[in-house]
Amino acid sequence: MHKNSDFMAEKKSDLGNSSTEGTADEIKMKLSRLKAKLKDSKRKKPVTTPKSTPKKIKSATKAKEAKKKEIKKQAEAKKQEAKKQAEAKKKEVKKKQAKKQAEAKKKQAKKQAEAKKQEAKKQAEAKKQAEEEAQRTYEEELEEQLTEEQITDFQIHKTDMDKLINHVCEIVATYGNNGIHQSDLWKKLKLTSRDGSRLALKLERMGLITREKILLKGRWTYKLIIIKSPIGTDSLSGAPCLVCPVESKCSLDGDISPKTCQFIEDWVLIELKTKKSK
Ligand code: SF4
């Protein structure tokens, strides 16, 4: 305001002077100078620093609240992250425990299966042994107890063994390849099972019969089958023994014996061929 009044006073003074000088050009020039001064004074008007307004305070509060909100948000996010990590850790521990338990269960199952297998094996072996035991015959026990010599030298008291052997072979031969149950044979010959079993072993060692193990009425026994047919009395006329020069030295257990005699073997073969051709 003060500056404007100075300007007006100057203006009035300038105008007063112009009337005294009296020329229009001068007035115009003075007016022009005044206008420029006015313009200049406006340009130089001091810039007043704006004081804080309620609007700015509001904005600062808003910013503060936003910052507070942001911090709260970050804390919440941090909390959520920690919770997430804790849950993941818990899950991992649980997973590990489950894996451990599954492995232990698997191990236990494997152990049980192995034990079961072992038990089954043991039972199978016991069963096999029991079966083998049940299949074991008196003759097998004899073969274990007696020597080969005791078997081949077997004699029955007051019995002509050659005659008995020949008779046994004759009976067995009548049954052909089907054979005869040894118990039936011993009954026919009125022999005890003890003697019959020993005789069967002897005949087998002599190569006259074979023994076939069979199950009869739940008991394991033998069927006797002829190998070499005995020679009938009608064909004895051709027997080499009748004209044998060493007959007196020949015996079952001697160096010269029907067991190893080539004459006998050849003669038996001829007899068999003759029988078959008939
Ligand atoms: S078995 Fe032989 S060795 Fe003995 S008597 Fe007869 S033919 Fe002679």
Automatic annotation (TrEMBL):
InterPro entries: WH-like_DNA-bd_sf (IPR036388), WH_DNA-bd_sf (IPR036390). This is Uncharacterized protein. It comes from marine metagenome. Residues 1-14, 62-90, 100-139 have a biased composition (Basic and acidic residues). Residues 1-142 are annotated as: Disordered. Residues 30-46 have a biased composition (Basic residues).
